[in-house]
């Protein structure tokens, strides 16, 4: 990861000062670096490492960072990873345009592989991520969203990049078709588990720990799994409370919604769905040779569910 960070720093160079400032600010915020880590793990699980793998891991992080910049503008977010968002500091226009710069720089880095399949995988992934963003936008304030529609959004918006990271790592390691499919599936299920827990933490985490304000999803009108569960399985009064708050995207009712979520068992249900997704990720590794790296990937899947931030 130190080598990947060095690639990131070098690849952020631009003669335009504002691009460097915004890009370095958002990259410098740190984060879990899960997606580039997944590229490294997938490649290493098949015995591969090296500069090209570091470069493509950095490319995946650039794609992710570009989506964060755009997400924060769309969501009008003011806090991420415990710091002011880039749009809060530099304005919406700068955030969107620097996000575009990171997307295009990522595609320049892909070209360096001289592998059309890497370009194909990433072109499809970024297209599906954009579709996921639009699906999420269409679902804002929608109290009729069911669990299948919710899963479709997170599999497009979040899990697709995890899937691409696993697949690219496998491709760079010259994986067999079976191994490539297994590592892509691992990424997809890991990303699903990770996002479900993110949505749980919006109703159970600590703001200082998770780096954003609790209730942000409610304030943005996002029908996440805990809310969907209450609306489908909670007491009538609790379900109506959630529907009202969600349809009005109203943080003022967060305390009442939180109580409804806790009473209904929604958090336990959502955590169990995340656990099942993580175990599907673990099962996908059956096609991968036993090694310390494979063991680490199993631990990563299970830690993604147990985390508090």
Structure description:
By secondary structure, the chain is an all-alpha fold. It has helices at 2-11, 17-28, 34-45, 51-75, 86-90, 92-111, 116-139, 147-172, 177-201, 207-210, 216-219, 225-233, 236-247, 254-264, 266-284, 292-306; strands at residues 79-80, 83-84. It is globular.
Question: Which features characterize this protein?
Answer:
16 helices; two-stranded antiparallel ribbon; 2 strands; mainly alpha; 309 residues
Structure, briefly:
By secondary structure, the chain is mainly α. Helices cover 75% and strands 1% of the residues.
Question: Strands, helices and their partners?
Answer:
Layout: H1 2-11, H2 17-28, H3 34-45, H4 51-75, E1 79-80, E2 83-84, H5 86-90, H6 92-111, H7 116-139, H8 147-172, H9 177-201, H10 207-210, H11 216-219, H12 225-233, H13 236-247, H14 254-264, H15 266-284, H16 292-306
Antiparallel strand pairs: 1-2
Helix pairs in contact: 1-4, 2-6, 3-4, 3-8, 3-16, 4-6, 4-8, 7-8, 8-9, 9-15, 12-13, 12-14, 12-15, 13-14, 15-16
Overall strand count: 2
Q: β content, as a range?
A: under 5%
Q: Average pLDDT across residues?
A: 91
Distance between the termini: 20 Å
Helix content: over 70%
Shape: globular
The helix/strand series, from N terminus to C terminus, equals HHHHEEHHHHHHHHHHHH
Going by helix content, strand content and strand pairing, the class is mainly alpha
Query: Treating each run of at least 4 consecutive H or I residues as one helix, how many helices?
Result: 16
What is the radius of gyration?
A: 19 Å
The low-confidence parts are: none
- Strand arrangement, largest sheet? 1-2
Major beta-sheet overview: 2 strands, antiparallel
């Amino acid at each position: 990861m130190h080598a990947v960070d060095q690639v990131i720093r070098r690849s952020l160079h631009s003669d335009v000062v504002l691009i460097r400032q915004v890009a370095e600010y958002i990259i410098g915020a740190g984060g879990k670096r899960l997606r580039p880590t997944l590229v490294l793990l997938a490649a290493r699980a098949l015995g591969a490492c090296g500069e090209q793998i570091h470069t493509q891991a950095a490319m995946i992080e650039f794609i992710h960072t570009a989506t964060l910049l755009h997400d924060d503008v769309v969501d009008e977010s003011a806090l991420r990873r415990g710091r002011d968002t880039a749009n809060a500091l530099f304005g919406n226009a700068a955030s969107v345009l620097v996000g575009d710069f990171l997307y295009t720089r990522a595609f320049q880095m892909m070209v360096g592989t001289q592998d059309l399949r890497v370009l194909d995988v990433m072109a499809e992934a970024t297209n599906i991520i954009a579709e996921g963003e639009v699906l999420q936008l269409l679902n804002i304030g929608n109290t009729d969203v069911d669990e299948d529609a919710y899963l479709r959004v997170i599999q497009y918006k979040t899990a697709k990049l995890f899937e691409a990271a696993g697949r690219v790592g496998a491709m760079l390691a010259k994986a067999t078709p079976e191994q490539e499919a297994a590592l892509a599936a691992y990424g997809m299920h890991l990303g699903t588990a990770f996002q479900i827990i993110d949505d749980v933490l919006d109703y159970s985490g600590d703001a200082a720990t998770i780096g954003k304000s609790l209730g942000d999803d409610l304030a943005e009108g996002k029908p996440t799994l805990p809310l969907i569960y209450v609306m489908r399985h909670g007491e009538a009064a609790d379900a109506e409370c959630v529907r009202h708050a969600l349809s009005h995207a109203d943080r003022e009712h967060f305390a009442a919604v939180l109580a409804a979520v806790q009473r209904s068992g929604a958090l336990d249900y959502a955590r169990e769905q995340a656990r099942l997704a993580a175990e599907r990720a673990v099962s996908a590794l059956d096609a991968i040779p036993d090694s310390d790296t494979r063991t680490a990937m199993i631990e990563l899947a299970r830690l993604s569910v147990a985390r508090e931030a």
